[in-house]
Automatic annotation (TrEMBL):
Species per Swiss-Prot/TrEMBL record: Candidatus Lambdaproteobacteria bacterium RIFOXYD2_FULL_50_16
Superkingdom in the source lineage: Bacteria
Domain Glycosyltransferase 2-like span(s) in chain numbering: 34-127
Transmembrane segments: none
One matching Pfam family: Glycos_transf_2
Name under which the protein is recorded: Glycosyltransferase 2-like domain-containing protein
Amino acid sequence: MASYKPGLVSIIIPTIPRKKLESLKTLVKKRFLLEDCLRELKKNVTLEHEIILLVNGEEDPKFVGHCRALGADKSIVTSTNCGVPRAWNMGAQMAEGEYLCWVNDDVEVGPGGLEGLLEVLKDPSVGEVGPSGNDWYRKKPGVSRGLTQIEEAEVISGFLFMTKRTVFDQVGGFDPWYTPAFMEEIDYSFAVRGAGHRCLVVPGLDIQHHHISGASSTNRPIRCLGQDYDRWEITFRNQAHFEEKWAHLWNDPQRETP
């Protein structure tokens, strides 16, 4: 088992530097960028933490140096996009914290946001927490959870979530089969619950997702490990893998279905 520093929260920010104005929808949205995300974290997070910047497929030392100056403590720079689950696993390998927190580069974290999540995660029965989540049946999301009070969910949303290092190690991290992207965070929540831990949604926190970045932010093919992936094709492929992997749940007579 990897060593860690008790009480430390490792904040992992994956990013692929890109022009943010890639689609019409970003033209009408606030352009909340990676630099903004780092500034807000540095200003608002009071708990003991480290920030790990994971630059997936970008070799510009000036960009990394700029982000380090804004508050990133460590950085990983890959020579090619290796996909979401592999990149997230690399971030965990660099982390020294007892708690691991993945934050999209277009998420705005206000005062008390991560502190509120950590307080709930410290419960011994809890393995993963986040500000948003829902139930999930086969290939589709179901009822949203935790809208007005802390509530269990089958899936914690991937734009920001926090988990215990021990739980991450127990379930083996993120399944690289989902490379380049889609379903990896859903699979992780299922693995956490499958290992006997609860996933909880914590509402009312000062956390805002601006939906500027992320694998689903454009309709362009995803360039990963030297080849282009059609978004719809990998979505269907990963959905099929997920359904097969967790097929025993769909056949469980005790499971509530929509």
